[in-house]
Amino acid sequence: MKLNKIVFMSAAMAGSLWGLTASAQIFTYNPGDLFVAFRTTTGPNDLVVDIGSSSTYQGGGGPFTISGVNASTLTSTFGGLDGIYWSVFGYASDNALFTSSPRGDINTQTDPTPSAPVSGQEAVISKMGAILGAAVNNGTALSSSQVLINSSLNLGSRLSYSIGVASLAGANQPGNFRNTWISVENFTGTGFAASGAPDVSDLYQNEPGNPLTTSGTYLGNFSLGNDGSLTFNPVPEPNTFALMGAGMFALTFMRRIGRRN
Question: Which residue, among 199, 176, 196, has the nearest Cα to 186 in the 3D structure?
Fold first, then answer.
């Protein structure tokens, strides 16, 4: 009888510990991952979502939806989809930078972003790394890929996205990781949820270089829909263009044969 009671109590304790472990959320990421971050000028928290390895966004292919970004998460964090600033960013071990560039016209691609020398890109990487460090050490994890960072974190060892993305040149140039070079943030504005039109931002990969001669490589674009979904539209792979060209050539050839017949 005693043995059965001990076994029962042990099982109950193990179950309780498992429940605590399972319910605890820890934000984790791997080097080279990209992130999408959201903030408002009034909200107490920033939302940062790990959207996977940068290699996922370099390989072409078809459009795909980003997990971890939806209307429910955005609304519970910010109270709605209006008035949200957002951007995509990340870096690789070779000092390559990944940043987004918001489109003024959703149908027109932005100009490629200029690169910077190693020291300049390292400065941006340091700021991004501090944001992710704050996410791991001071954030409130919603899952292994989603975390809230309090926007009141200072410029010391901790750094919120709101502070880290701000321009060093002053409040008249908001949304800059790169000081006066380029704005990385898009803005949903007022009435976004009811507008039906998405926000579109282009993704560029910048290797270190002279900003006068070296520009970023266009990898595709992110589209934030008014339903809260985030979609990535990659640049087709070169062999896709080749197949399209071959198909068009074959179609033209068949048409000519048909006309002769």
Answer: 199
CA distance 96 to 115: 9
Find where tokens 């399972």 sit: 22
The residue count of the chain comes to 261
First-to-last CA distance in the chain?
96
Cα separation, 103 vs 36, in Å, equals 16
Angle at the Cα of 64 from the Cα atoms of 93 and 141, rounded to 5 degrees? 60
Residue 252 exposure: Cα atoms within 13 Å on the Cβ side: 6
Does pTM top 0.85 for this prediction?
no
In angstroms, rounded to a whole number, what is the distance separating the alpha carbons of residues 142 and 25?
Answer: 6
Place of tokens 């605590």: 20
Which residue shows structure tokens 């792979």?
237
| Full pLDDT tens readout for the chain, 261 residues | 444 444 334 444 334 333 333 345 799 999 999 999 999 999 999 999 999 999 999 988 899 999 999 999 999 999 999 999 999 999 999 999 999 999 999 999 999 989 999 998 998 999 899 999 999 999 999 999 999 999 988 777 788 999 888 765 555 555 577 655 578 999 999 999 888 899 999 999 999 999 899 999 999 999 999 999 999 999 986 543 333 333 344 444 345 555 554
**Helices and strands per DSSP (H, E), number in the chain:** 6, 11
**Residue (of 167, 192, 154) closest to 74 by Cα position:** 192
Are 209 and 115 contacting, i.e. CB atoms less than 8 angstroms apart?
yes
Residue 102 near residue 109, CB atoms below 8 Å: no
